[in-house]
């Protein structure tokens, strides 16, 4: 079994690559999805968030108030650390659980889609998630900012704050053995990942 991690800065194109791999039939563990599941109404983590950040962190329906929390944590590194320390261990625990399940069903390749891999690699190692290959998908900041404004309806300031809260391209590349450039056409980008996967599966 080969375990790969896909990472990349926000709006670099990581989900486009990971969705393609999922469409090819490879089991995918999506850490953004796990992070959303971890804060479902009634979950212990949502209760911790409410205790740490106050009542404004929940909507009237008792759900996580994502825009409110984003405004608060992406402008304050201390608050972001508090959120990360609540979320990351729980998200990895679930990621490992899913990985075990896919492994037991005989998966040949498992894809972990982890936006913040550079920031959390120690948690991954501690929990026993060792990656055979790490792929980072990258594009220059100005292109990513334009994508975030267009597809996520962010303001320029919000896009810049989110990027500033993340590792740099150089840091992500330092833990990766493959860098995919998402300024090339999507078709070429997907052909590139397919070529790597084929090589790894037949090595
Ligand atoms: C702060 C929250 C509520 C904002 O929600 P929002 O809907 O705006 O963003 P969403 O969750 O869809 O994430 C979009 C992208 O933002 C970036 N991002 C998310 N969390 C973080 C973080 N803690 N630090 C830096 N960047 C982050 C990632 O690139 C991610 O792909 C949310 O991002 C959150 O709960 N973050 C903490 C969970 C986390 O760390 N997830 C990543 C797991 S590796
Ligand atoms: N090679 C490409 N050429 C042009 N646009 C692209 C390319 N790759 C991705 N995109 C577009 O960029 C936007 C962001 O891509 P995607 O959602 O895959 O990024 P991401 O890194 O997963 O972002 P996030 O961290 O927000 O989840 C999407 O609108 C996507 O269609």
TrEMBL record:
Binding, ATP: 11-16
Gene Ontology molecular function terms on file: dephospho-CoA kinase activity
EC number assigned by the record: 2.7.1.24
PROSITE patterns: DPCK
UniProt entry keywords in alphabetical sequence: ATP-binding, Coenzyme A biosynthesis, Cytoplasm, Kinase, Nucleotide-binding, Transferase
Substrates-to-products reaction catalysed: 3'-dephospho-CoA + ATP = ADP + CoA + H(+)
Pfam families linked: CoaE
Cell compartment(s), UniProt: Cytoplasm
Biological pathway: Cofactor biosynthesis; coenzyme A biosynthesis; CoA from (R)-pantothenate: step 5/5
CDD domains attached to this UniProt entry: DPCK
Protein family: Belongs to the CoaE family.
Function comment: Catalyzes the phosphorylation of the 3'-hydroxyl group of dephosphocoenzyme A to form coenzyme A.
PANTHER family in UniProt: BIFUNCTIONAL COENZYME A SYNTHASE-RELATED, DEPHOSPHO-COA KINASE-RELATED
Protein name: Dephospho-CoA kinase
Native source organism of the sequence: Alloscardovia venturai
